[in-house]
Amino acid sequence: GENINICWSPDGQTIAVGNKDDVVTFIDAKTHRSKAEEQFKFEVNEISWNNDNNMFFLTNGNGCINILSYPELKPIQSINAHPSNCICIKFDPMGKYFATGSADALVSLWDVDELVCVRCFSRLDWPVRTLSFSHDGKMLASASEDHFIDIAEVETGEKLWEVQCESPTFTVAWHPKRPLLAFACDDKDGKYDSSREAGTVKLFGLP
Q1: pLDDT by residue (tens digit) across 156-182?
Q2: CA–CA gap between residue 110 and residue 127 (Å, rounded)
Q3: What 3-state DSSP class applies to 3?
């Protein structure tokens, strides 16, 4: 199956890759060899370790978050997070929360220790494709086919900013040290030269 998701372990020792056949392979970053492989019976979407490197999280097509122990890969818990396909997952740099985005257009914020949903962000109208926490864990950017990126205050859920876009957004990423958001949309830079179809990367900075 074609590979569709990839992530590093926080300690930098392992790369996890998920493919279209719902197989997740764990690759040793030093030897470049596979050290474990897990076949799942559900649609695996985004994958991520927790910040402590001892649990592995998957979002799935049934709206659940599956949690496995790491490195044993034994199932710990399955959380019914959303009524529809659970698409993306991100952990905040502080290790306090993680967020998931779903096809129901909701972003849910979860307490890492308690594994309970703390609040939901519901300003988007389309399936949430991409999420990113700011470096200090205070802001959460989320985006979809809506023509804006929602920037929320994590602790209150309030809207801090709405970044206008002319097309759907595929991916968002905060700068590791500054309040600067990079994002890529479904647009082509053909304004000046129609023979050149290049995607554009945009930056949005908060004062």
Answers
A1: 999 999 999 989 999 999 999 999 999
A2: 19
A3: strand
List the structure tokens of 101. 């985005």
Read off the pLDDT of residues 31-50 as tens digits, 9 standing for 90 and up: 999 999 999 999 999 999 99
Give just the sign of the alpha carbon dihedral 92, 125, 144, 19.
Answer: positive
**Alpha helices, H only, the chain:** none
- From residue 174, alpha-carbon distances to 5, 22, 178, 203, 204 in Å are 19, 28, 8, 10, 9
Residue 67 vs residues 30, 57, 110, 143, 188: alpha-carbon distances, Å: 26, 5, 13, 24, 38
Could you say which DSSP state residue 72 is in?
T
For the chain, the distance separating the N- and C-terminal CA atoms, rounded to the nearest angstrom, is 44
Average pLDDT rounded to a whole number, residues 183-205: 77
pTM confidence score: 0.91
